[in-house]
TrEMBL record:
Species, as recorded: Crocodylus porosus
InterPro entries per UniProt: NECAP_PHear, PH-like_dom_sf
Protein name, UniProt field: Adaptin ear-binding coat-associated protein 1
Keyword Ubl conjugation: no
Segments of this protein annotated with the region Disordered: 164-216
Keywords in alphabetical order: Cell membrane, Cytoplasmic vesicle, Endocytosis, Membrane, Phosphoprotein, Protein transport, Repeat, Transport
Superkingdom in the source lineage: Eukaryota
Xref: Pfam families: DUF1681
Length: 277
């Protein structure tokens, strides 16, 4: 058998000075007024201590020296009938005290310092705020227990198919390499791409103007390089001049060259027969 839960008593607030007043019965529903009490002559003076046990708070009036209990007021809710404020002051309250036999009475209490009255009020508010939160949490947990639970497990023979995107197929083209920090990477060329050379233009059939056809090279070993150069010069002059008549085969091809050489030699008898280019 499980052991019963043990509730511990906690101290919420302690005030060393509190005045207790015997108050007249309330004549109407307009509330209590502290001005109707004998504020200068309290009926008892002592220490006030607020404790809690479970959800119930207790206001205990004790002797300052011995700690003997003078009166006790159990509080089930706040604000409520167990603790009421007066209509004409924030330092005075009316509490309902009870003895062990179940008898109850209403007495007035008051604090000299307004800050003590504020702490007394806040301590009770914080306790019952916690009680409200605990009640809501307990209610939600009970409702969750009564709800049917969802069965999210796989049944026997049940399978599931996952479709994951951005996956490279086996044998597909490789992904481009991403450049790292400080590096440069170029994307690969498209698959199947070829680099073609520029087309070569076809040879033109139009003859080039002023084209000089060099004379055929003589295979004779007796022809010197100077003779070949003179022959090129003669071919160039012939291409620019109008076409002459046919030269007889017996005409000397080097007659003009001999004439030019004799003319130069007559003008400069000391020079050699070679023409300098």
């Amino acid at each position: 058998m499980a052991a019963a839960e043990v509730e511990y008593e906690s101290v919420l607030c302690v005030k060393p000075d509190v005045n207790v007043y015997r108050i007249p019965p309330r004549a109407s529903n307009r509330g209590y007024r502290a001005s109707d009490w004998k504020l200068d002559h309290p009926d008892w003076t002592g220490r006030l201590r607020i404790t809690s046990k479970g959800k119930t708070a207790y206001i205990k009036l004790e002797d300052k020296v011995s700690g003997e209990l003078f009166a006790q007021a159990p509080i089930d809710q706040y604000p409520g009938i167990a603790v009421e404020t007066v209509t004409d002051s924030s330092r005075y309250f009316v509490i309902r005290i009870q003895d062990g036999t179940g008898r109850s009475a209403f007495i007035g209490i008051g604090f000299t310092d307004r800050g003590d009255a504020f702490d007394f009020n806040v301590s009770l508010q914080d306790h019952f705020k916690w009680v409200k939160q605990e009640s809501e949490i307990s209610k939600e947990s009970q409702e969750a227990d009564t709800r049917p639970k969802l069965d999210l497990g796989f049944k026997e023979g049940q399978t599931i198919k996952l479709s994951i995107g951005n996956m490279t197929k086996k044998g597909g083209p490789p992904k481009p390499r991403v450049a790292g920090s400080g590096g440069l990477s170029l994307l690969p060329p498209p698959p199947g791409g070829k680099i073609t050379a520029p087309p070569v233009p076809p040879p033109s059939s139009t003859p080039i103007s002023n084209h000089v056809t060099p004379p055929p090279v003589l295979k004779s070993s007796n022809v010197s390089s100077a003779d070949i150069l003179l022959d090129l010069d003669s071919a160039a002059s012939v291409s620019k001049a109008p076409a002459p008549s046919a030269v007889p085969a017996t005409t000397d091809l080097w007659g003009d060259f001999s004439t030019a050489a004799s003319t130069v030699s007559s003008q400069a008898p000391q020079q050699s027969n070679w023409v300098q280019f």
